[in-house]
């Protein structure tokens, strides 16, 4: 027993020395990668005089997939991919820092999704509304935008779908974010004194059963975003007013709030899907998804004839949403997602057939399936 105790101090220094040696090697290799990224930028600038594209979504998706495929643990695949995501983000910033517009204010889940997709080495640009995100990217003031499109509990975000009607932006990527809601208060407030709970209307809906059970007497107040709710709670707390917010981890840290209860969402698998919008078409990555906007002809069986093409050519349709067309009374526009890239032979054939049967077919973009 004494021998085993005496072996511990002798072993720990050796392990720590080994860790220090590995850290040194990792640091050397990261800087070597960064120098390669700088050389890539030099080559691109030399070969392309106009509109140099530094960010390649399909390339990054391929790299992250390979990271996960060759991972042998003990770190999990996603954890390893997140580490490489940040390395790639830092290296890309050496080529050209990217300005990313997102549905703000700071502290929203959309910002959390932007950081997950692009890494932390970006210039964040919070926008007040979804259409402002589109305008910021269209004007060239931002390289890309991040907007929510659907939630697994509450369904589609109509403002995002409607923004594609008149926009020429392309969908360049997607990111899925598990949504964890927390009940937050100012640190100097007694939670038992809370009379009002602030949050976005969707977050209130996603926590409805929990609120009914544990906070039935608190008035629920819908505001523009969870981050705005957190800001209001922080300001109110300075004056001693006892209100609470439902928001996420980023907002909690940003506004210095305390958690009363964590992970209060009614469904533990609550997930929101976000889209990355930009001005470029994305080449195939090997595992892609395509989104279409279709105006159907007003005739019997119109929708059936559109969907039949997918089944006949073996193309997997993953989502179908309907919105009023605004062009005619009782007219509708269909938003469709399917597996594959629009340049793939079978997908190209389906799109050609849809153009013959529909009034309008607009390819919103082909993009890599979410890796993280």
TrEMBL record:
Q: Where is the Prephenate dehydratase domain?
A: 99-279
Lineage: superkingdom: Bacteria
What Pfam families does the record point to? CM_2 (PF01817), PDT (PF00800)
EC? 4.2.1.51, 5.4.99.5
Question: Which key words tag this protein in UniProt?
Answer: Amino-acid biosynthesis, Aromatic amino acid biosynthesis, Cytoplasm, Isomerase, Lyase, Multifunctional enzyme, Phenylalanine biosynthesis
GO cellular component terms attached to this protein's record: cytoplasm
A single Gene Ontology MF term assigned here is: prephenate dehydratase activity
Which InterPro entries did the record assign?
ACT-like_dom_sf (IPR045865), ACT_dom (IPR002912), Chor_mutase/pphenate_deHydtase (IPR008242), Chorismate_II_sf (IPR036263), CM_dom_sf (IPR036979), CM_II_prokaryot (IPR002701), G/b/e-P-prot_chorismate_mutase (IPR010957), Preph_deHydtase (IPR001086)
What's the protein called, per UniProt? Bifunctional chorismate mutase/prephenate dehydratase
The species is Marinomonas ushuaiensis DSM 15871
Lineage of producing organism: Bacteria, Pseudomonadati, Pseudomonadota, Gammaproteobacteria, Oceanospirillales
């Amino acid at each position: 027993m004494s021998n085993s105790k005496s072996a511990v101090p002798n072993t720990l220094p050796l392990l720590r020395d080994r860790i220090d040696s590995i850290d040194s090697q990792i640091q050397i290799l990261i800087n070597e990668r960064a120098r390669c990224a700088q050389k890539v930028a030099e080559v691109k600038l030399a070969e392309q005089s106009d509109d140099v594209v530094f960010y390649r979504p399909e390339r990054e998706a391929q790299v992250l997939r390979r990271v996960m495929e060759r991972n042998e643990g003990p770190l999990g695949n996603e954890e390893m991919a997140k580490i490489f995501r940040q390395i790639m983000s830092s290296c890309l910033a050496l080529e050209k820092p990217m300005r990313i517009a997102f549905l703000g204010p700071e502290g929203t889940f959309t910002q959390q999704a932007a950081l997950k997709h692009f890494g932390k080495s970006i210039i964040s640009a919070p926008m007040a509304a979804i259409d402002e995100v589109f305008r910021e990217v269209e004007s060239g003031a931002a390289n890309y935008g991040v907007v929510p499109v659907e939630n697994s509990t509450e369904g589609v975000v109509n403002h995002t779908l409607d923004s594609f009607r008149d926009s020429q932006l392309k969908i360049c990527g997607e990111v899925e974010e598990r949504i964890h809601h927390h009940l937050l208060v100012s640190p100097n407030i007694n939670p038992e004194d809370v009379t009002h709970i602030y949050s976005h209307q969707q977050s209130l809906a996603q926590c409805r059963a929990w609120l009914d059970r544990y906070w039935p007497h608190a008035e629920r107040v819908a505001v523009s975003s969870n981050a705005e709710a957190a800001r209001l709670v922080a300001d109110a707390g300075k004056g001693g007013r006892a209100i609470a917010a439902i928001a996420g981890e980023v907002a909690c840290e940003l506004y210095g709030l305390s958690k009363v209860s964590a992970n209060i969402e009614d469904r533990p698998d609550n997930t929101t899907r976000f889209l990355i919008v930009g001005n470029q078409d994305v080449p195939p990555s090997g595992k892609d998804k395509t989104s279409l906007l279709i105006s159907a002809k007003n005739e019997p069986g119109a929708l059936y004839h559109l969907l039949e093409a997918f089944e006949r050519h073996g193309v997997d349709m993953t989502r179908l949403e309907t919105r009023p067309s605004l062009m005619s009374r009782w007219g509708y526009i269909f938003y469709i997602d399917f597996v594959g890239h629009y340049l793939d032979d079978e997908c190209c054939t389906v799109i050609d057939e849809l153009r013959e049967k529909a009034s309008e077919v607009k390819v919103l973009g082909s993009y890599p399936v979410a890796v993280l």
